[in-house]
Structures are given as C-alpha cells and as structure tokens.
Write a structure and sequence with these properties.
414 residues; 11 helices; 7-stranded mixed beta sheet
C-alpha cells in the first residue's frame, strides 16, 4: 500500500469514528460499543505508525538519491539556487570541509562577507550561515515544540532587546454614555516586559576529518540535523519552563516561559490524576472572547494526551476525536490541541495543561544563525569541531489569554 493510500485509509477510518461518535446516542455507549470504538482506535494507531514509517523511508530514499547525484558530480539544487546565493552556499560548504586555508580567493571573499557581527562575546568570530542551512534548521526546529508551532512568530534581524507592553486584556471594558455626554478616561493598566534575545549553544559538534573529506556527504544537511536537535529541544524547554531569572555568576539569564507567565485557572482534586470535568473547568476559566480565537488550543505532553484519548464522559462517550485533514483536526472536548514534551506531568502544584489563545504568546526568532569552526582544539583526534549559536525570545503579551490546569496544592488566581 502506497503512502497516498495509507493517508486516504487513515482519513476514511477517522471519518468512520467521527460518524460513529456523532451518530450514537448517549444511552447507547455500552460495553459493546466501547469495544468497537477501541478496536477502531487501535487500528487507526496502526495505520498512523505505517504512515510515519513510509515517510521515514521516503526521506531516506531522497537522501540516497541526493548523495548519489553528488558522487556523480551532479549537485542537486536546493531551492533552485542561482547566482550569488548559490556561490555563497558553495563557498560555505568548502569552508566547512577545508577551513579558510582551503578556499580560493573568490570563496574566501564570499565566506568573510558572512562574518557575524555578534552582540555578545560568545558570537565574536563566527559566521552567519547561508539561508539554505538556516532554512533547514528553522524547518526542523518546528518539529520539537508543539507550542512553538502555534505562537505568534516575530522575526528580527538582530537580537537587541525590545520593550514589550504586557497587560490583562480580560479586565478592559468600555462604557455606555448618553447623548452629548463626556466620555470618561480609563488608563490601560499594563506592565513593561522585555522581549529579549537569549542565546542557545548547540554545544560542540565533533566531525571526523574523513567525513569532511567525503564529498558524498551533505555537510549542510548533517550539521542542520545536529544543530536543530540540540537547539530545538533547549528552545522548546525554555519556552515552557523558562523562569525569567536574571543572570548570575553561575547561570545565564532565562526567558520568562509559559509556566512562569500563566496563572492557574483550575486545580485538580487529586495530585496524581485528573478528570474531564477539570479539563472543562480549565477551558471555561478562559474568557469566551479568547476561546473563539483561531489559535485557541489545549496544550499538554504526550502522557497526558494518552490519558485524554482513553477518557470518557458520564455517558461513556469518548472525549477524543481523530483528525481527518487540516480542516478537521483531532479534538478533545471539541477543542484542538498541541502536544509539547516540555510540559510537566501531573503532580502536586504542577502546571501540566494549558488552554488559551496562543497568538498572544510572542516567539521571537533572530534570523542570524552563527557557526564557528574549531580546528586546533581536536586536531590530535583527527576531528574538527563546529559550534552554532541560535537566538530567540518569548513573552506573553496578554496574561488573561492563557490559563493553566495544575495539580492539587496550587492556588487558583483571583
């Protein structure tokens, strides 16, 4: 069965499950109906695994074709590059493999034109990578954070701090006035947050000289994969768990992530498990104006998602519905959701689920991705080190837009 057939089968089975869910009366969800539902859910999970396997095989086949083209001397175009951009990419590839000493005069000029003008000492002496490598890293980063995929993305050319207004939009209201009457004043109550630029290091990536000399290896793809894995997981964790703490002698400054920015909307009665009624309470703790927003989502980790998929309401009806396509995504309690592994498991006092309009969460991405090539440090091992720096920032501009469900022991915000 082809990948296209598998996806069509997945959509068909999902539609059957939705039809069954909508067409079964509340009093008809008996053990037999539940067994049929669970069998369909298991079958759907199996189809999903096959789709993921086929997609992985397809990616591997594409990589093989590209490598074979390189070995035969035919360079596969990336994004149909031409002109100066193609020359820049070629020069950068030569720099990755041979360092500045192995460059021609033209290549040296192209590479040194990319020298990074860093805003902090850690970045001095590095090189801003070509747009193709940067695009690969950015694309891969999106797979490491469900929340990052639904934030409002703000791209900036540099990492200078930006003063950002932060307010509680849920408390703002106008007034009714009579004809020819003066309107009253009401100052907008807001605080000033800072949308900073925090630097993530990929840590040193060590590559053997033999690998660098192998022209069949796509060094751009190789480094993009390593950089995105390391930086993606770190950025993802800080978007959720960043404390907002200032820099100390022992630790760098941290962004103020979701956990530190969001107030508690509902608390579970048990520190180790939750009910669908408590999830519903979280949803309704958010003002209806935000619940109608296009980017209103529930957010939790995969373990919590599994518990929700198996959960039923008082009529034994499943809360989870599978997605069919982009227009009809998977839902829980009729709400779309994202899975983010940086969100905590349920525990006493822990925020383990969020609900709200994630368009109010601003994710700043600094366009420049800087790379250093370290030659002498690992020369005795026959290796070259690469070190990448990625900058980002995060701020919740409307504190009423997102609320958290926390385990027993936490306090609900007034």
């Amino acid at each position: 069965m082809t990948l296209k057939d598998l996806k069509a089968l997945y959509a068909t089975k999902s539609a059957e499950m939705r039809s069954m869910h909508e067409g079964t009366n509340d009093d008809a969800w008996n053990s037999e109906t539940r067994s049929k539902w669970e069998a369909m859910r298991t079958e759907l999970a199996g189809i999903k695994e096959k789709i993921e396997r086929e997609e992985e095989l397809r990616d591997n086949d594409q990589a093989f074709v590209e490598n074979r083209s390189r070995n035969s001397g035919v360079q596969t175009p990336v994004g149909d590059l031409t002109g100066p951009e193609a020359e820049q990419r070629s020069a950068f590839d030569a720099f990755l493999r041979n360092g500045t000493e192995g460059l021609t005069a033209e290549q040296r000029s192209a590479v040194f034109a990319m020298r990074a003008q860093g805003t902090n000492p850690n970045e001095a002496g590095g090189f801003t990578v070509p747009t193709t490598l940067q695009a690969r890293v950015i694309e891969a980063l999106s797979t490491y954070g469900g929340i990052a995929a639904v934030c409002q993305l703000l791209n900036t050319d540099n990492g200078a701090p930006i003063a950002w207004a932060v307010s509680n939009g849920g408390e703002e209201e106008g007034e009714l006035i009579g004809e020819n009457k003066q309107a009253n004043e009401k100052d907008v109550e807001f605080g000033m947050g800072t949308l900073g630029s925090y630097t993530i290091s990929s840590k040193i990536i060590r590559v053997s000289e033999q690998l660098l000399q192998d022209s069949g290896i796509d060094m751009e793809a190789f480094l993009a994969g390593r950089i995105s894995k390391r930086c993606g997981r770190t950025r993802n964790r800080l978007i959720v768990q960043g404390t907002g703490a200032a820099e100390t002698a022992d630790a760098p400054a941290q962004p103020k992530g979701l956990e530190a920015s969001v107030s508690v909307g509902s608390v579970t009665a048990n520190a180790t498990k939750f009910t669908w009624q408590e999830v519903n309470s979280l949803i309704h703790s958010v003002d209806p104006a935000y619940r109608a927003a296009p980017k209103f989502r529930l957010a939790f980790n995969d373990k919590t998602a599994q518990a929700l998929e198996e959960m039923v309401d008082g009529n034994n009806r499943p809360l989870w519905l599978p997605g069919i396509d982009s227009d009809r995504p998977a839902t829980i309690l009729k709400q779309q959701y994202v899975i983010d592994q940086a969100i905590a498991d349920i525990a006493a006092g822990k925020k383990f689920m969020f609900a709200g309009d994630f368009n109010e969460l601003i994710l700043r991405a600094v366009r420049s991705l800087t790379l250093k090539r370290l030659v002498e440090r690992y020369a005795e091992y026959g290796q070259v080190g690469f070190l990448a720096f990625l900058r980002f920032g995060i701020v919740l501009q409307d504190t009423a837009a997102i609320k958290a469900l926390a385990g027993k022991g936490a306090e609900v915000a007034a």
